[in-house]
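[Help] Beginner question about ligand-bound structures

Sorry if this is basic. My supervisor gave me a protein sequence and a SMILES string for pyridoxal-5'-phosphate and asked me to "get the holo structure". I don't really know what that means in practice or what format the answer should be in. Inputs are pasted below exactly as I got them.
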Amino acid sequence: MGLPAAEQTEAFAEILREIQAEIALAQERGVYAAPRVQLLAVSKTVDCGRAAACWQAGQALGLAGLAENKVQELAQKCAQLPPEVCWHFIGHLQTNKVKQVLGRAALLHSLDSWRLALELERRAAALDITAKCLVEVNVAAEASKFGLAPAEVWDFLREVTTLPHVRICGLMTVAPAAENPEEARPIFAELRRMRDMMRQRVEKVAYSNLDLQELSMGMSNDYKVAVEEGATIVRLGSVIFGDRIYR
Ligand SMILES: *Cc1c(COP(=O)(O)O)cnc(C)c1O
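Answer (accepted):
No worries, everyone starts somewhere. Holo just means with the ligand present. The predicted complex, written as structure tokens, is below.
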């Protein structure tokens, strides 16, 4: 904060290098680790200047994108940051705000209802684009969280095959908050098993808009465990930007 731009960018570069090194170590340790893990910087509540500095630092360091969880904040940052930034949307999305996210975000991590899927289909068809999504799964069945129950996911995926402008690229989960990241391991392992099982079923029937490659799981506190368990996308906020200040 308050650093000159070049120093701010270098500070982010240092953090991102450390994280990439940790990811590489976790890939070596984990028997289930994916060969390629995308790193997203969660820039929610972070001002545009710092988000831009992080994006810039990330260019040489394999940063895959910036992620936001509020529609209005996504719109504001999209308008102020360079157009080449790859944005991801990771928050609960209301159907009346689909229009503001489609076309801006490369991937929606939080498809959590059939109503939302229908609205994505309608809007994406009108724009003649494909809405790329992950299905959010509430693996731990927490009352406070969005996401489908594990038992609902397969039927949901089959329904989505009737929506030609929606493409499901994988599954996403948020593990329950815990001091000890090991507590998240069974949650991540469960999501991986679900993805593998659904992928096998999909291969047999060749649904063209289901391509279940991605596993978006792992945040600042638990990303190393998530990578060991097969994450292909990790979503990191506070480990990059420091503690969030909510206004
Ligand atoms: C805020 C948020 C993150 C990042 O959280 P940190 O603990 O700061 O890394 C990741 N995923 C989702 C869905 C979030 O809302």
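A couple of things worth pointing out: The CA atoms of residues 188 and 226 lie 6 Å apart. The longest strand covers residues 105-111. Feel free to follow up in the thread.
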